[in-house]
Model the fold of this input.
Amino acid sequence: MKHVVKTPLIPDASICAKNTVIVNKDFKMDNENSKADVSKQELGILSRALNRSVEYSRRSRYTWLILLAGFLLGTCVVTVIITLTNHNEKKDAVTEILMKRSHETLKTLQQLRSSVDNLEGNVNSVIEKIKTAETQASSSRNKKANTCASLDRYTVYLHFNNRKNKKIMVKLAAFLKSKGYVVPDIERVRAKKCDIRYFHDEDKEGAFFLRNHINEFIARSADVKDINFEVRNLGKVYPKTRKGLLELWINF
Done:
C-alpha cells in the first residue's frame, strides 16, 4: 500500500495579504468604533457634569439671590422698625411735653381761679363795706338832718364874763348855728359860772345835745381848755319860761 503524503496547502501570498488588509481594516474600524464609544461616554459624562455644574450654579445663584433678598428685606424691616421706634419715641416725647404743659396750664388755671375767687371775695367784701359805709353815712346824714331839724326848736342864749373871750364866743355862736340851734345874742355877765340850763323836762335832751356840741367845739379850739359843764333844770325857779329855751353860762 502506498502511503500518500499529503502536502499541506500553502496559502497564496496575495490571499494572505488581502486577508491581512481586511483584518487591519476591521481592527481599525473596531478601534475607531471603540474610540467613538469612548468619546460618546466622555461627552455624556462631561455633559452630565456640565449640567450638574450649571444646575448647581443656578441653585447657588438662587440661593445667593434669596440670601441677598432676605438680607435686604431684613434690613428694610429693621429700618422700618427703627424708624417707627424713633417716631414712637419722638411721639412719646412730644406727648410727654404736651402732657406736662397741660398740667402746668391746668395748675396755672387753678391758681388763676383761686386768685379770681379771692379777688371776687375781696371785691364782695369791699362792696359790702362800701354799702355799710353808705348806709352808715346815709343814716348819719339822716340822723344829722333830723338832729339839725330837731335842734332848730332850741334857742340858746350865750353868757360869758371875760371881755377878752368875745371873739371865741362869736365863733361858738357860729358853730352852734351850723348845728341847727337858734342863737339870738351873746351877753356878757359878771357871774363866773359854767353850766347849761333848761326849764322844761322835754328840753332835757336838747341840753345834753348842747353840752356835747360845746365840748366838740372846745376840742377843736386851741384857745379853750377843757371845761366841765353841769346840766341844770331850773324849771321850778322859772316855771313861766317858754319851752325850747336853753342858756349857756361859761367862764374861760
